[in-house]
Specification:
The protein is α/β, with parallel strands linked by helices. Among the domains are: about 1-125 and about 155-205, Rossmann fold (3-Layer(aba) Sandwich); about 430-590, 3-Layer(aba) Sandwich (Rossmann fold), CATH 3.40.50.2000; about 620-805, 3-Layer(aba) Sandwich (Rossmann fold), CATH 3.40.50. Helices cover about 40% and strands about 15% of the residues. Helix 19 (about 455-465) runs parallel beside helix 20 and helix 26 crosses helix 32 (about 775-785).
C-alpha cells in the first residue's frame, strides 16, 4: 500500500495557493518521488467522498461530479504503479465535508493508505471575514453579515475528531495559518510536512492572481456598492487593480462580531490545542479576540480613492470599459443576466400595476429586462452578458462552436470552461518602457504568434535585435513566453496577453489598442500564426511585411493564407520550396512574385523564468552527460536530431533510421540522441507514448537517448558527428544553420525543407539529400557519411561556405527593412496594394470599435 499525505483545505487558509504550487511543480515533486493529481481531479475525488445530500446539491459539487470530468481513479493508479513514486499528496478544500470512511474505502481500492493528515487552521473571526471578502469579490454578493451563529465548517476541533476517528493510525498535523502567514513560512512548512526536500532546484511560485488574496477594506466597499447597484464588471476591474499591488488594510469583522465568534469557538480551539499538545495553536484558544478594523464604514479617504481609481484606469484598456449591465437577485447574490437583452419599455399604464418581481429589477432610463434566451443566438446584439462573456469573441476564436450552431454561452458553461476556453479576450500585459523611445526615431510594430523558444519566435527576436538600433520597436506577442520577455530586455516595448489568444477578434482589439498609443510607420508580421492582426492593420492602412515560415500544406484554413497575402504589402518566403508549395495549393497565388529571403543564423535569447534572468551555465561535461555520452567508447559516431518532439519533426522517422542502421551495421559503434523538449511518455499519452512503444518494439533501448532541452547548443553540436533532419515539413529550420556554422554535416529528406534545394545547389545533394521520407535511402546516406571521415570533413567546409554566403542575420534584417520602407514609399505615392483594404470592408464579423 502506498502512503498518502492528505491536505484538508480548511476555509480561507491559503488552500488555492498551496494547490497551485503542487500543480505547477508536479514534475519537480515527481522527481523526488511525490505523486500529485491535477487540481480538478483531486477536488472530484474529495467530492466523491461527500455523503451530505445538501452539500452534494450545491452547484460546484455537481460540476465536479459531471460526466465530462474524468474520474480520478486512473491518475491514482498511475502513482501506485510508477516505481519511482513512493508517496501520493492529495489536497482539496472539499475534504472538509468528506466522510473519512468513504475516503478510506476509495483509496484502499486503489492501493493507497493515508498515514498523514495536514490541515492549516486560523482564528474563526479572521476566516469568516475572509469568507465575506471572497463572496463580495467573486460571487457578487452585496450584503454584509448580520447575526452570527455556529457553523460546523469552522469548528476545528470537530474536524479533528472526525478525521481522527476515521484514521486512528494516521498522524494528524494541525498548523496555525495566521502564525505562518505573519512569519511568511506557510509554504516552507507545507513543503516540510509533505516531505518535499529541496536540492537547490528552484520551484515555481503561483502568480498572485491565482492565490486568491483578500481585498483591502476600501476596495471591498467599492465592490460591494458596485454589486448592489448592478455594476459587477466595475468590481472585477478594481479587483485586478488590487492584485496588481495596491496595498491597504484588509477587511475584518466589527469588534461585536469578533466577540460573538469568540464565544462560539474559543473553547473548541482550546480543546484542539490540548488534544494535539500544540503550542502554536494555543493562541487560537486565548480569550480577548480583537478586531483590527471597524468593518466596512464606507469612509475611505479621498487619497485612497484617487490612488485606487488612477491605478485602475492606467491599466484598463479603453475597449474594456462597458456600460453597466442588469442583474437579477437570488437572495443577496447579484449575477449577470444570462441571455438578457434590453428593450424599450412601454409607456406606464394609467392604472396601478403589481410591483415588479424582485428577481428582475428595472434598470434606470426607461428600459426593462427581457430574459428571452434567443438573444444569444445572434451576433452583434448588445448583450447584457457582454462584460463577463463576449459572444462575438467566443465564436470567432472557436470556429468549431460557430460551425456547430450551438448556444455559445451554454457551450461555455457546460464544456468550454472545463476545456480551458476563454470567455472573453484577455487584456494585454506590457513590459519595457515606452518613455525611453526617441522622438527622432520612427516607431514600428513586430508581431509574434507566440513567445516560446521555438523557430519563428526566435527569428522575430533576432529581427528585434537588429531593428532596435534604428527604430522604436513595439512587439505584440499573441501568447506570452520567454522570447517575448527577451524582446523587452533587448529594448522593445512588449505587449502580450496572459494566455494564448489567437482569433481575428482579438487581433483587431490588440492592434486598435496599440494604435491609440503609437503611430506605426510599418509592421512586420512574423509567421502565419500572427495573421490575426492583419485585418486591423489593413483597416488602419499600416504597411505590412508578412514573413511566412510555414508550408501551406500544414496550414488550416487555406483561405486564411490568401487573406494574409491580400492584407500584406509584401509576403516573404524563406525558400523556393515553401513558395512553390503555396502556389501549388492556392491557384490565386500563381503568377504572383514573392521575395525569397532565407533568415540568417539566429542568436538564442537567454533563459528566462518569470521576470528574472537566469544564467544556466552548461559546461561541455554537463552537455556530454545530457547527451548520454559518458559511458560510450572512444570513436563512437554520434548522430543527433534536434527539435521540439512532434510529428512534424519526424522523431518516429529518426527512430526508424536508427533501427535500420543498427540492424544493417550491428558492429558499428553509433549513438543516436534527440535534443529537444516534450518527450514525456508518462504524461503524454499521444506522440511520446507511441515513440516509447516504438523504442521498445524495435529494441532501441540503450542505443537511442532523449536529452531534453539543452541551452548550450554549441557544445552539443561539438559533441556530434552528423545531424539527421528527419522533419516531414520544416521550411528552413534554424538548427541546420546552427549545425553548419558549427561544422556539423547533416542529411535531410528531399522536398521536406528548404535545405534540400540549397544542398543540391551546392553540389552535395547525392551525399546529403535522401528521397522524400525514404528511410532506406536516408539510412544508406547516413552509413556512407559515418564510415567516411573525409566526406564529413568535406561537408564541413561546404556547410561553412553556405552559411557565409547565404545566412547572415544582419543582411536578413536589412533586406526585410528595405522591403518595409519600399512599401511605405509606395503607400505614400498611391502605388501600394489596395486589395487588402477592399477585402477588409467586406468583412462581416467585425467587433465593436
Amino acid at each position: 500500500m502506498q502512503p498518502v499525505t492528505l491536505h484538508i483545505g480548511a476555509p480561507k487558509t491559503g488552500s488555492t495557493f498551496l494547490q497551485r504550487w503542487l500543480e505547477e511543480n508536479s514534475a519537480l515533486l515527481a522527481a523526488r518521488g511525490l505523486h500529485t493529481l491535477p487540481l480538478m481531479l483531486c477536488h472530484r475525488l474529495a467530492v466523491e467522498c461527500i455523503r451530505d445530500p445538501q452539500r452534494l446539491a450545491r452547484e460546484d459539487a455537481a460540476h465536479l461530479l459531471a460526466p465530462s470530468l474524468d474520474p480520478a481513479a486512473e491518475a491514482l493508479r498511475e502513482g501506485v504503479t510508477d516505481g519511482s513514486l513512493f508517496r501520493t499528496v492529495l489536497s482539496s478544500e472539499y475534504f472538509t465535508d468528506a466522510d473519512p470512511a468513504a475516503v478510506v474505502a476509495l483509496l484502499c481500492e486503489h492501493g493507497l493508505v493515508v498515514d498523514k493528515i495536514l490541515c492549516f487552521v486560523r482564528r474563526q473571526d479572521r476566516a469568516f471575514a475572509s469568507g465575506v471578502n471572497q463572496s463580495i469579490k467573486v460571487a457578487g454578493r452585496s450584503q454584509l453579515p448580520g447575526r452570527l451563529r455556529y457553523r460546523r465548517g469552522l469548528d476545528w476541533h470537530a474536524l479533528y475528531k472526525r478525521w481522527q476517528s476515521g484514521f486512528p493510525e494516521a498522524e494528524l498535523v494541525f498548523r496555525n495559518y495566521d502564525k505562518h502567514t505573519r512569519e511568511q513560512t506557510l509554504l516552507t512548512v507545507f513543503k516540510e510536512e509533505i516531505g518535499f526536500v529541496g536540492d537547490g532546484v528552484p520551484d515555481r511560485l503561483p502568480q498572485v492572481a491565482q492565490s486568491n488574496p483578500s481585498l483591502n477594506t476600501t476596495l471591498l466597499e467599492i465592490c460591494r456598492l458596485a454589486n448592489e447597484r448592478g455594476h459587477t464588471e466595475l468590481g472585477s476591474f478594481l479587483v485586478k487593480a488590487q492584485l496588481d499591488g495596491l496595498d491597504g488594510p484588509r477587511y475584518e469583522l466589527s469588534q461585536e462580531q469578533a466577540t460573538c465568534l469568540e464565544e462560539i469557538y474559543v473553547e473548541s480551539n482550546k480543546a484542539l490545542a490540548d488534544a494535539l499538545g500544540s503550542h502554536e495553536l494555543t493562541e487560537l484558544g486565548q480569550p480577548g479576540w480583537e478586531s483590527q478594523g471597524t468593518g466596512l464604514s464606507g469612509e475611505a479617504s479621498a487619497e485612497a480613492l484617487v490612488d485606487l481609481l488612477a491605478h485602475t484606469v492606467s491599466r484598463l484598456p479603453a475597449a474594456e470599459i462597458r456600460p453597466a449591465h442588469g442583474i437579477r437577485r437570488q437572495k443577496d447574490r447579484a449575477e449577470p443576466c444570462g441571455a438578457a437583452v434590453l428593450e424599450p419599455a412601454p409607456s406606464p399604464a394609467p392604472t396601478p400595476v403589481p410591483a415588479p418581481s424582485p428577481l428582475v429589477p428595472s434598470p434606470p432610463g426607461g428600459w426593462r429586462l427581457n430574459l428571452r434566451p434567443r438573444a444569444l443566438a445572434h451576433r452583434g446584439i448588445a448583450l447584457l452578458l457582454r462584460p463577463v462573456f463576449d459572444t462575438n469573441y467566443y465564436l470567432d476564436t472557436y470556429p468549431d462552436v460557430a460551425k456547430a450552431g450551438v448556444n455559445p454561452w451554454r457551450h461555455y458553461l457546460e464544456n468550454g470552461s472545463k476545456e480551458g476556453r476563454m470567455r472573453k479576450p484577455g487584456r494585454l500585459v506590457f513590459s519595457g518602457n515606452a518613455r525611453l523611445f526617441s522622438a527622432t526615431r520612427k516607431t514600428i510594430l513586430v508581431v509574434l504568434h507566440e513567445g516560446s523558444r521555438t523557430g519563428a519566435p526566435i527569428i522575430g527576436y533576432n529581427l528585434v535585435l537588429g531593428l532596435v538600433k534604428k527604430y522604436n520597436v513595439v512587439v505584440l506577442s499573441l501568447a506570452p513566453g520567454p522570447v517575448a520577455e527577451a524582446c523587452s530586455l533587448a529594448g522593445a516595448y512588449v505587449a502580450a496577453p496572459r494566455r494564448r489568444t489567437l482569433s481575428w477578434w482579438s487581433g483587431d482589439l490588440f492592434v486598435r489598442q496599440l494604435a491609440r498609443s503609437f503611430s506605426f510607420t510599418f509592421a512586420i508580421v512574423n509567421a502565419f500564426g500572427a495573421r490575426f492582426t492583419l485585418r486591423q492593420l489593413a483597416r488602419l492602412k499600416i504597411p505590412v511585411v508578412s514573413l511566412i515560415h510555414e508550408f501551406a500544406g500544414n496550414i488550416h484554413p487555406l483561405s486564411d493564407f490568401v487573406k494574409t497575402v491580400e492584407w500584406s504589402a509584401v509576403t516573404v518566403f524563406p525558400s523556393h520550396v515553401t513558395r512553390d508549395n503555396a502556389q501549388q495549393l492556392l491557384p490565386a497565388l500563381r503568377g504572383k512574385e514573392f521575395p525569397i529571403i532565407p533568415q540568417g543564423r539566429c542568436l538564442l535569447p537567454a533563459r528566462i523564468h518569470g521576470e528574472d534572468l537566469v544564467d544556466r551555465v552548461e559546461s561541455v561535461e554537463m552537455v556530454r552527460t545530457a547527451l548520454g555520452l559518458d559511458a560510450l567508447a572512444a570513436g563512437t559516431i554520434v548522430v543527433m536530431g534536434v527539435g521540439y518532439v512532434s510529428y512534424r519533426k519526424g522523431v518516429d522517422l529518426f527512430l526508424q533510421v536508427a533501427s535500420r542502421f543498427i540492424h544493417d551495421c550491428p558492429d558499428m559503434a553509433v549513438h543516436f540522441v534527440w535534443v529537444g523538449d516534450a518527450y514525456n511518455p508518462k504524461s503524454d499519452g499521444n506522440y511520446s507514448a507511441y515513440l516509447a512503444d516504438q523504442i521498445q518494439r524495435e529494441a532501441l533501448e540503450g542505443r537511442v537517448h532523449f536529452a531534453g532541452e539543452i541551452l548550450n547548443m554549441d557544445a552539443a553540436y561539438g559533441q556530434a558527428d552528423i545531424l539527421l533532419l528527419s522533419s516531414r515539413l520544416d521550411p528552413l529550420p534554424n538548427v541546420c544553420i546552427e549545425a553548419m556554422s558549427a561544422g556539423l554535416p547533416f542529411i535531410c529528406f528531399d522536398n521536406a525543407s528548404g535545405f534540400s534545394d540549397i544542398l543540391k545547389r551546392y553540389g552535395v545533394g547525392p551525399e546529403c539529400v535522401a528521397r522524400y521520407l525514404d528511410i532506406a535511402d536516408m539510412t544508406k546516406k547516413l552509413g556512407a557519411l559515418a564510415l567516411a571521415p573525409e566526406r564529413r570533413q568535406a561537408m564541413r567546409s561546404t556547410g561553412l561556405r553556405i552559411v557565409d554566403e547565404m545566412f547572415s542575420m544582419p543582411v536578413y534584417v536589412d533586406r526585410i527593412e528595405a522591403l518595409a520602407l519600399a512599401t511605405v514609399a509606395n503607400s505614400r505615392t498611391g502605388d501600394g496594394p489596395s486589395k487588402g483594404m477592399q477585402a477588409d470592408d467586406r468583412t462581416r464579423d467585425r467587433p465593436d470599435g
